Structure formats: C-alpha cells, structure tokens
Amino acid sequence: MLKEIPWTRERLRKDEAIVKLLTNKKQWDGNKTVFTLQELTDLAKDFDSANRYWRLLTARHTELQGRDYKDKIIYEQRKILDLDYEMGYNSLSRLSKNL
What we know:
This protein is mainly α. The chain has helices at residues 14-26, 37-60, 72-82, 89-98. Helix content is 59%, strand content 0%. The protein starts with 13 loop residues before the first helix and ends with a helix.
C-alpha cells in the first residue's frame, strides 16, 4: 500500500489508510452500523498491528516516508501545548511528597 498509494505515507492520513486497508480485508462496505464486541476487538488488534508495521516500515525505508514524516516533533509540541500538559509534573509532585 505504501508503495502504490503515496497519500498513505503521510502521518496525518495514516489512520485513514489503515482503516481502509482493514475494512477491505474484512469486506465491510461502509454501510455496517452495528458491530459485535468481538468484531471491534479484532479490529482494534488488527489496527494496532498495522500501525506498528506502518511505523516500522517508514522508519526503515526512508523512500516510504511521507512529506510530513520529519514534522513529528512539531506535531507533538503543538499537541502538548493544546493539552496544556506540563512535562515532569508527576515526577516533581512525587519528589515534593518525599521532602
């Protein structure tokens, strides 16, 4: 998929690509609105495996990396700011309890 369909290499569209791959594998046509717990569990496991495999392939083969591959740090920093996350907060609070 990464070789034949270039948009699947983009980090921001990775989830969409994996879902399309899995729905084709499961032969779901997009009209199904009710899933059993077992189907959702299987889908979650397959998605997790496919996500790990995608990251492994794009890390090992630079020609399969999308244009936004090197922007990961920027996206992470933006998300940290959006969430108002404080780095090291838990370790500092544990340290203060020991004082």
